[in-house]
Amino acid sequence: MDGTQRTQEGIGASVIRKEDARHLHGRGQFVGDIALPGMLDAAIVRSPAAHARLRGMRRPAGSLIFTAGDLALPDIMAPHLPPAARQAAMPVLAKDRVRYVGEPVAVALAPTRARAEDLAETVELDLDPLPVAMSVEQAAAEGAAVLHDGWPGNQIHEFRFCSGQDGALPGHLAQAPIKVEGVYRMARQSMNPMEGKGCLAYWDDRQDQLILHTSTQIPHLIRDGVSDVLGLPRSQLRVIAPDVGGGFGYKSILQAEEVLVCWLARRLRRPVRWLEDRREHLIAAANTREQLYRVTAYADRDGRLLGVDADIAIDAGAYSVYPFTNLLDAGMAAGAIPGPYDIPWYRSRSRALATNKPPVAPYRGVARPGACFAIEQALDAVARQAGRPAWEVRLANLIPAQAMPYTTLNGRVYDSGDYPEALRRAVEAIRPRARQAAESMAAREHAASHRIGVGVACFVELTGHGMRAAHDWKLPVRPAPEPATVRLNADGTLEVRLGLQSHGQGMETTMAQVAHEILGLPLDAVRVLHGDTGLSAFSTGTYASRGMVMGGGAVAGACRELARRLQRLGAVLLDCDAEDVAVAHGRIQGPSASLTLAQVARTWHEDCGAFGNPAEPASLEVTHGYELPGEGAFSYGAHAAVVDVDLETGYVRVVDYLVVEDCGVAVNPMIVDGQVMGGVVQGIGSALYEESLYDAAGQPQASTLVDYLLPSAGDVPFVHVDHLHHPSPFTEFGMKGVGEGGAIPSASVVCSAVNDALDGEGACLSELPLSPARVLRALAGARRPAARHEEAA
Q: How many helices (H) and strands (E) does the chain have?
């Protein structure tokens, strides 16, 4: 018996999240809610220059202000770099040089944050300005300002791939009936979780440990990174992630401030806390998304792809981040370009370049939104050349269902699914919505100045990758089997301990649903503990849509072993053979009688001798490590959008949005829908609003939420979500990850819809965000040639 059971609380049930009870009543505990006696708050002195020699620094004598010279710490080094890559190590505090506006230079301490900020303002910096490199074009140019001493230029590393043997363009592609060339650019963005970064450290003399509370997705890796920099044994550092108000990848890196508060708490033997404010986040925090794609697509007359050639440049900022390095986007982008399409030939070059901006960190989707944007816009261009609807061209190029499992040109194995069916469903659903929007617009007085457009896009994403994928693809983070510990207490409640950390995904609920599926205990009898290195086995954390696949698999394995132990114990109490006992619905059922799990647990804890001496099994606590038999599970789907473009103002409004997604078996469909919708909103932000701008001197131009625009509730339509269910053959229950899929194609879908709306005007955009100014420039550029033609006639 496998112990699985379908109930209203188990896998597939849309149960209300357990976490919501405390969060909706304001009882969550975030770093900002923790205050300890004698605590000092930190304010960071940050560089006002994008690139300069740090000649000196003046600070009031006797003040609690610390500089790099006081710390005498090594730089934060990125692990697992390719052999030819250059190490752009990040100092905890700047030493002799600053490389972006906002780089930490010193730290001031006081009993309150306000007084610490006043003290920080007394610091005077002696800076000698240096030339800047503010774009990938500037960074790669001859004679560019070089950020790091000893480097011949600013290129950190280059990834190359070609499905052909010699790397050359095959002769038949040069003669392809359709050849389209495009340049596609995504703007730099800030990640903006609701809760900014925060950390609090203190020394616990009783445990002889440094305790760090920090808002993070990767507690064990933060422990390892801080330990390495401080030279502190890992056993003497405990990292605890309390409630985390959103992460999106920003909280999957080691922050210099985390090292700082640990060093200060250890030095001063007082609690030290740092809380990031929104301006710090916007100007100084790790950024994302700034990517440039030059794509050439070759196709036959019907739009069937024959080959794709991609040249990619990633703005990686000034330093590498621990542990994911500054190469993750460049490597992921090159591998993600083919997406869900059957492409006979593919070649790519992808470069990461250092610039005078904050470091780039993984952000929801990690390069796949940019890669999806590039290939989807290229397919739109192919469709225009072929004279066919864009969705028909995509349908002709999608990997067919009968080809599953499908091995891509670069060796990835797509496990299951029906990619064409997802697109067909999206098209069938969006067509009537587009007609309704057009009819509604036609009835309005201002219809002449508005255009309705429809866009579609398809995507695929790797989820839940474990040891094999990390090793084979030489990823910067190499996970071990994902652990989970379950313990049945004397009162019949189940304790689940995870090294993963939830930062809004509802993991306390979904992991409890997995446990319920095996043991049948009600959800309120399952307690999920996570994000504490002192309570859990080593985990690399929560990222890359791996939490449910890997953590859920680990919980299932641990609960199954616990069920086997309970069968043996129950058989003793029921005086029957273990093979005649089943564990289900929170009970141990024998041939003629049954016991609750609580009854067995209480007997084991209070009268263990009843099971023999020594008792077998010897424990009701199980730790299980889960690893995928394959490299990962691939979720996929199709998105479609309807937009309204105002030709007079350039303003774009998303009128309707539809998602057809397949994450295999959904553990909690309500949470899946929430994840998808949240990702779509972030994609709409990328498409229309979000941009971290800098002037020529490297000064940030978006330092508040007045300048940096985020989509609001009024900017986003209701997102309709439809589901396909093709279980993965590689995972427990057939589940796949779903955390990033909503964000991957959404920016491209909006851009395709806008270009569809403007097709009659002769305008086409390929740079995000599609701000009103960019839309108006594209319209003006399209109209000027027509005007000149009329004058000549």
A: 19, 29
